[in-house]
């Protein structure tokens, strides 16, 4: 009896030791993700969570080269109209179902046909998906698509379990089943998302945390305080004014990288009744608003000069930037003249913005600058995912909102500016822009793509459905004990290889 009791105690101590050695990675997010379904979602922070939850057909490396993930090799044929992919063997979804070519076919067709899918325009070029054998899939395209690899390295390339998706339909986001290194455990809206390590993952040895918890903390000051207190291991989007504080703390470290995206003001052009304002209907009023804003001063005052002022969907550092349409200088007199010409002097409109300190300061600076030109901007702070819902529904006049950016320039513009774009919340529609942006998808000739984008930029610079303001630098703060984090320009937090020093 005594020996049995001793063995039981020893076994209990071993279990306690195992629990004590289990490691959790706690990450502070600036926003709460929207629905966790790759076909339906659109938030930046949602993509951060997917990086641990959902493998894609291909990924990128820090130099933006495409690298294998669920697809191990690929080949183009038929003049760029056929893409054949070899798939990784031995991969399973979190529900135990096998990943294979049939699953790829199901996922692409779901992206194309699910009524709620926001990926439809991204996979529009795919006309057929053929299962060649269990580990070979062939995509047939209507025309060559220079953007397809970038598309498959993002949400449209994330593979969900067909069995789970069929059972849940549009409700898959309540319990997402993918094949990534971590599987879904629970979500408390506006608070946390909890994932646990998936033992059957094909590369499980490269992941050293048993659990990952994402905490939603919109206030950057509170987010940093949680990191300083040890309640978080890392935070994304450190506020630039806080960089000296973190650098002065030997328990913390700063990591940064120039990003691929932009921040701007999206204007409701034709999305319901709230578009029927001088701002929504008259490009002269939108031009006046742009001319009232000093981008360099905005960047300096709010972000300590950390970001890069810009006026296009790609940054001035991009090879696709149209130098013939440079960042305009602030011109209050011209802005006033345009408002007078449009009969919109003293025009008042509402601008919504995410309810975090940096975006609040930016909105207030924009409000003050625009007031000098004769605009009366009413500010409305909104939780981020809710703000995006309002945009989709047309319940807004203007939104101070950004985009995290994509490897291919198409990912920064096509879904936002084409008539049927999946994230075109302004409902801006110009068939000539559609023609140019579709054309840029259908050629791999860089010079030709530059020419097509330059022409599109000229039209967009005139119509101005989005007033681009700056291109953010991504800044993270981490515990000094956290090792192995590699920053990527897409700002995704890849957990592979990360671990805590003892």
Key terms:
Dipeptide-binding Protein, domain 3; alpha+beta; six-stranded mixed sheet; 502 residues; seven-stranded mixed sheet; 3 domains; D-Maltodextrin-Binding Protein, domain 2; Dipeptide-binding Protein, domain 1
Structure commentary:
Residues 1-21 have low confidence and may be disordered. The strands form five sheets. A seven-stranded mixed sheet has the order 8-9-10-1-11-19-12, sandwiched between helices. The chain has a six-stranded mixed sheet with strand order 14-18-13-17-15-16. With 502 residues, the chain is α+β, with helices and mostly antiparallel strands. The protein starts with a helix and ends with a strand. It has 16 helices and 21 strands. The protein is globular. 32% of the residues lie in helices and 23% in strands.
CATH class of the largest domain: Alpha Beta
Q: Kindly estimate the percentage of residues that lie in beta strands according to DSSP.
A: 15-25%
- Radius of gyration, whole Å: 24 Å
Derived structural class: alpha+beta
CATH superfamily descriptor of the largest domain: Dipeptide-binding Protein, Domain 3
User: What's the rounded overall pLDDT mean?
Assistant: 94
Shape: globular
Number of strands: 21
CATH architecture name of the largest domain: Roll
CATH topology of the largest domain: Dipeptide-binding Protein, domain 3
Query: Order of strands across the widest beta sheet?
Result: 8-9-10-1-11-19-12
Sequence stretches where pLDDT stays below 50 over 5 or more residues = 1-21
Largest sheet: 7 strands, mixed
Number of domains: 3
| Tally of individual helices | 16
Task: Give the N-to-C terminal Cα separation.
Answer: 39 Å
Give helix % range.
25-40%
